[in-house]
Design a protein that fits this description.
Distance between the termini: 70 Å
Number of strands: 12
Number of helices: 30
Strand content: 5-15%
Largest sheet: 5 strands, parallel
Radius of gyration: 32 Å
Low-confidence stretches: none
Shape: elongated
Length: 642
């Protein structure tokens, strides 16, 4: 079932021979990886970089280190490793070093990298670094880029290059192949049920045999094998995932296998996953292929989604994988690495130690980590997978000791400290530092404003919100053009206000977004507004009920005054209603930055007092019923807009 790569191989070899570059595309199963390894195998003039999925925090750094390891000079490699934190600069320097060594660059890009170029305005830190890496690599004078059709290279900033397209690789099932092992009888059964000469993708055949081996109905599997691969693959993945869930002892091992990022020997793969021996072909021949066994990134991503659910801790599996890679590299620093396979092993050891929880702590601490991504990898595992927020915060803080201008680590140190309910002042400091380093980052701004809201710092939150709008969208065009910014900035700030009971603040944030933009957002803005309107009605009803329960004419006057104030200033927030020193009704607005009160006398006279809490300036006066003076109106307008 080996794919025909002759067209792509000829195009790539001709381009490299004449000092040029080429892009080679193909669907899943068309032989892109086979072509990549063929172009680099046994050739001293070619450096192969197999990028990890961009969802992996260390993917850009891993790609750079793989390329650096192909540079012949050890001193040059060390200098390049020191450039690693600046991804684009490092990529440009690596390209230059490889060119000086007369080496071409072959880069295999997984389908998930397509998301890195969807919209530069939407880049998070990982996508931005992924874009920077490819833009640097694209400057190589001799370059072969291999990618799935899902990856829009032009959106990633890669300049136009000649392009060759591989066709889908369709072959007959090989039921007698010795490779099927304990699934051989199932493969023969499927072969006998298919029409003579039936063709399909090798991946379809592998999934079909695995699904049938796990007791899926033959007729259903047979039906999907007759369909084109594009439609059959998704259905077979769903069927296989369902059968894995129903087969005792398989979910855990398969989920562990999906955490493995590089090819492994079959015996190591079965051992570290804990797969029952009778189902070894499920990993070695159905989900994976070859020796060492590889699982394609696209299949891995689909199965991760299909098998999503509550996972058992994977510390032991990651620790076992780290021990395996320790035998292959055995050094603390990537600067001590001398070959590309050894560098791949070093990166994988660092990754699996990062994900091994407490089991990996000591050995991970002993590594010399050359860029922030390796800290992110461990901190994200501690935070997302193990919910150890305080430990994750400490990893981000350790990263900042080496890379002090890393806004990502500032932000997530703060976020994890907040989740752990530890050191709120330190959390605020790092949220603010992240915004200072990346003032136009909507996530950093949303989290800072939300933290200030949740911690009761209302005036500071409003100031930070205005500053965020000025930095992220100063003229309002981004909010008016796309729902993305509203979904990732405005929504979270409005929700934070609403969660602490400040429905009017939430409404102001939401009402700053055009209605058509709110409707296009995937965030539930309608629900948010409905919640705020419900909170407003309930609060106004409680105030009316409170007025009605109070004796004396001054309370009737106070309620009428409040209704008149709302008519004149609809945005005026609800007051705190209470009893003044002489027993008369009093309406008061107490904000961090100012205080205003109005006291209603028995004869309908109004006495008011206002103070600026920041400057300590104050003002007072007396007026007849509802005859609001300009001075009082000015103070109330400040309340309405505070």
């Amino acid at each position: 079932m080996t794919p025909d790569i002759s067209l792509g191989r000829t195009a790539a070899e001709q381009a490299l021979e004449h000092g040029g570059s080429v892009i080679i595309r193909g669907p899943v199963g068309s032989g892109l990886r086979t072509l990549a390894t063929t172009l680099s195998h046994g050739r001293e003039d070619t450096a192969l970089v197999e990028l990890l999925d961009l969802e992996e925090p260390d993917a850009p750094a891993a790609g750079l280190l793989q390329a650096i390891a192909a540079v012949p000079d050890a001193d040059a490699r060390q200098r390049l490793i020191e450039k690693l934190p600046a991804t684009r600069d490092a990529a440009l320097a690596v390209v230059k070093a490889l060119a000086e060594a007369k080496k071409a660059l072959v880069v295999l890009i997984p389908p998930a990298w397509g998301r890195a170029g969807e919209d530069p305005a939407e880049d998070d830190e990982h996508r931005a670094r992924g874009r920077a890496l490819l833009q640097g690599f694209a400057t190589a004078p001799r370059l072969v880029l291999l990618s799935d059709f899902q990856v829009d290279l032009s959106a990633l900033g890669v300049s136009s290059l000649p392009e060759v397209r591989l066709q889908a690789h369709l072959v007959p099932l090989e039921p007698e192949s010795a490779a099927w092992g304990r699934y051989a009888a199932v493969a023969r059964q499927l072969g006998e049920a298919l029409p003579p000469g039936q063709l399909n993708s090798p991946l379809v055949w592998r999934l079909a045999v695995g699904t049938l081996a796990l007791q899926a109905p033959l007729a259903e599997v047979q039906e999907w094998c007759r369909r084109p691969a594009a439609g059959a693959l998704a259905r077979l993945v769903a069927l296989l995932a369902g059968r894995i869930r129903l087969t005792p002892g398989l979910v855990g091992p398969v989920r562990r296998a999906l955490r493995i990022r590089r090819p492994l020997p079959p015996d190591v793969l079965v051992s570290v996953t804990g797969l029952p021996a009778e189902h070894a072909p499920l990993l070695t021949e159905c989900l994976g292929y070859g020796n060492p066994v590889r699982i394609s990134p696209s299949l891995r991503a689909q199965l991760v989604d299909a098998l999503a659910g509550r996972e058992a801790p994977l510390e032991e599996a990651h620790a076992a994988l780290a021990r395996h890679y320790q035998l292959l590299d055995g050094v603390a620093s990537p600067g001590q690495v001398g070959t590309v396979p050894q560098m791949e092993a070093w990166v994988e050891r660092a990754h699996h130690l990062a994900c091994a929880g407490d089991e990996g702590t000591r050995d991970w601490d002993a590594l010399e980590l050359p860029s922030p991504e390796f800290y992110w990898d461990r901190a994200r595992a501690l935070s997302i997978r193990y919910k150890r927020y305080e430990q994750a915060a400490q990893v981000y803080l350790a990263c900042l000791e080496r890379f002090s201008d890393d806004d990502y680590s500032h932000h997530y140190a703060a976020w994890n400290l907040e989740k752990a309910q530890r050191e709120p002042e330190l959390s605020r400091e790092h949220y603010a530092q992240a915004v200072m380093l990346a003032p136009d980052n909507p996530w950093w701004n949303a989290r800072l404003v939300g933290f200030l809201i949740r911690s009761g710092q209302r005036a500071e939150a409003r100031f930070a919100w205005q500053r965020a709008l000025q930095s992220v969208d100063p003229d309002g065009t981004a909010t008016a053009r796309s729902a993305w910014l509203a979904s990732h900035l405005h929504y979270w700030v409005a929700e934070a206000w609403l969660d602490v009971g400040h429905w009017r603040e939430a409404q102001r944030v939401v009402q700053g977004i055009p209605a058509e933009i709110r409707e296009r957002s995937y965030r539930p803005f309608k629900e948010l507004l409905a919640r705020s309107e419900r909170a407003e009605r309930e609060e106004r009803a409680r105030l009316s009920e409170w007025f009605a329960a109070q004796p004396g004419p001054s309370w009737d006057t106070a309620e009428a005054l409040w209704e008149e104030l709302v008519r004149r200033m609809p945005s005026l927030p609800l007051p705190a209603a209470g009893v003044g020193e002489d027993g008369c009704a009093q309406l008061a607005w107490s904000l961090p930055e100012l205080y205003v009160e109005i006291e209603v006398g028995e004869g309908g006279q109004l006495a008011w007092y206002a103070r600026d809490c920041l400057t300590q300036k104050s003002e007072a006066g007396e007026i007849a019923k509802f005859e609001l003076t300009p001075a009082l109106v000015r103070w109330l307008e400040r309340v309405a807009h505070a």
